[in-house]
């Protein structure tokens, strides 16, 4: 999923950084693979191995996956409801990446505004941030209430709420969907594993 290059920041003065959650701040691949596997099995669908899943489905909103499999609106709503329950059941499988609290603290010390935009529902995002005691670093948090990425609405809403122009902001993600989200929003985007190795590299900008 980390295939398309984006332009890295060079001597760019930034006022705000908006982060994706999964794959950027926390490692949630084990949790999400288990959730998708459980859903696929319940529907009698082919269960991809983890490598195939990571290549084809990681980062894709569940409603989009349901659409690909031809789910009705009712089936999609039921599947999303099941997913929300499974997220809470599997929260212990989610791990924070090393150094994230210290990095976020350093960015806040520099006076930067920080936000999170995720395809997860907002209450779950907040639970994850609270679990790892990093919620206090963020000026605003948005989940899927403005539509799933790659729709840019959530990303743009965050910048509006924190009062920063998109030319003064950076979006940090980890998938092709994040690339498309940043492009749709017109915001400079950095992709983990492509433009930077981890969010610690942001401190060097």
Structure description:
With 205 residues, the chain is α/β, with parallel strands linked by helices. It folds into two domains: 16-27 and 95-204, Rossmann fold; 29-93. The chain is 41% helix and 12% strand. It has helices spanning 29-42, 50-56, 62-68, 73-89, 100-109, 122-131, 153-162, 176-185, and strands spanning 16-19, 26-27, 95-96, 113-117, 140-142, 169-173, 188-191. The chain has a five-stranded parallel beta sheet with strand order 5-4-1-6-7, sandwiched between helices. Strands 2-3 form a two-stranded antiparallel sheet. Helix 6 links the parallel strand 4 and strand 5 (140-142). The longest helix is centred in the middle third of the chain and has 17 residues, at 73-89. The model is unreliable at 1-11 (pLDDT under 50).
């Amino acid at each position: 999923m980390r295939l398309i290059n984006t332009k890295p920041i060079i001597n760019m003065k930034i006022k705000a950084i908006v982060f994706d959650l999964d794959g950027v701040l926390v490692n949630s691949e084990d949790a999400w693979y288990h959730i998708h596997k459980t859903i696929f099995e319940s529907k009698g669908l082919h269960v991809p191995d983890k490598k195939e899943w990571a290549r084809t489905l990681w980062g894709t909103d569940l409603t989009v996956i349901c659409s690909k499999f031809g789910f009705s609106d009712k089936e999609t709503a039921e599947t999303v409801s099941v997913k929300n329950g499974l997220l809470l059941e599997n929260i212990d499988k989610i791990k924070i990446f090393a150094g994230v609290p210290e990095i976020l603290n350093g960015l806040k010390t520099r006076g930067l505004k920080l936000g999170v935009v995720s395809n997860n529902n907002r209450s779950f995002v907040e639970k994850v941030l609270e679990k790892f005691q990093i919620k206090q670093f963020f000026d605003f948090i948005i989940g899927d209430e403005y539509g799933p990425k790659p729709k840019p609405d959530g990303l743009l809403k965050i910048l509006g709420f924190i009062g920063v122009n998109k030319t003064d902001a950076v979006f940090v993600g980890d998938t092709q969907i994040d690339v498309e989200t940043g492009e749709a929003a017109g915001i400079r985007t950095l992709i983990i594993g492509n433009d930077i190795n981890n969010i610690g590299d942001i401190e060097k900008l």
